[in-house]
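Progress report, Aim 2. The chain analyzed during this reporting quarter is listed below.
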Amino acid sequence: MDAIGANYAGVFDHRLGFGRRPALLLIDFIAAYTQPDSPLYAPTAADAIAHSAGLYTVAKAHRVPVIFTRVLYGAGALDGGLFVQKVPVLKRLVPGEPLAAFAASLTPDAQDVVVTKQYASAFFGTSLASLLTAQGVDTLIVCGVSTSGCVRATAVDGMQHGFRVIVPRECVADRHPEPHQANLFDINAKYGDVIAASDAKAFIESRQVLERPEGSLMACPE
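Predicted structure tokens for the chain:
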């Protein structure tokens, strides 16, 4: 065990595990991260999308709620506040901009929820927490980009809102390997469980489905 591992042993890295009712959250799988000529290009985003698409297919088959997020600003990006001042390239993410469109290989259908956000966390300034609570969700399977930005921010807020956060490691990506690995380490240590995508898939496949009287669908325990 290295010095870092020894320092964390017995203090961090405890497992939260899965709860009873999952939702799949797909964070910012947009063209800005998949196009090589984009200033936000993340070389491993395409692989993360491919793995996430597999989870998406299983989630849909088992009627697990699926939520997509995207970052989108109005003209002038005034709704981006200090975030767009810190990262000016984000001002390009406006309606009609091709880079702001969902990646062609993984797009929401009419039954999926799309949450539009202006900041890193999928919870900040959005209705996501209320949506999940209304559906009885207690486990949030988080995929997306970037690991060090929106994924981490969402993982932190997810845990703070009382959700069990699960991050399938093959389903997240970043622009550089160092922050990617460092943030997976930190998420697993403090905010959620970083697991294999195959384990997340197996969990979803183990669920049965409960249809509520009002017609909303969610996974239920065995």
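The beta strands are 22-27, 66-71, 113-117, 139-145, 164-168, 172-173, 193-195, 208-211, 217-220. Residues 45-61 form the longest helix (17 residues). These observations will guide the mutagenesis work planned for the next reporting period.
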